[in-house]
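BUG: 3D viewer hangs when loading the predicted structure for this chain

Environment: internal workstation, default settings.
Expected: structure renders.
Actual: progress bar stalls at 90%.

Input used:
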Amino acid sequence: MTDPVAVVVDAEVASIARLGWFLAAGLRVIERAAVLDEPLRAAAAAARLTDARANVTAAVRTMYKRLGLDPTRTRPSSEALLRRVRRGDDLPRINNVVDVVNWCSLESQLPFGLYDADRIEGHVTVRRGQAEEQYAGIRKDVVHVAGRLVLADGQGPFGNPSSDSARTMVTTATTSALVVIFAPAGLPAASLVAAVIATQERIARYCR
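Structure tokens produced before the viewer hung:
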């Protein structure tokens, strides 16, 4: 890719995870976009009616197990969204960019990461978290990432497929965001490409 933010996948995890990413610039972030009400409602309703992505959910859980993680104790964010809507809850509403990413994650059943690009320092490396590495999470005190698949920049880890950091969270002040999709290495590349394209199109439609 030719994005200004360079993302490098460490060789140790390249056989376990395949990453898709892009930089979304020129964003207009608003707390609640009424135009998303119906698409998000429809997405949640569809997720309650079909198991069409059950194989992807299972593959993501296997990806976690290959990293030595229990996906029931530390759930992929995509599975957490699916469980939420299947118990009857709506998709969470944060802001239009986060809401679009959650919609795409629920639909694809792939974990996404979303980060304010202006809060990232230098290049991004995707690797295993090191002993005692941690960060302040969004709505969580501390996220411990030792052994997990993490994204790290010049300041250290700031995201993983289960929960992201407060440092790089997207807010109404964000104008450019890095979108990352975490996929199992064995997943057909076309599935990841489709998720990237769908997300790019929806961000262009609802967030600019």
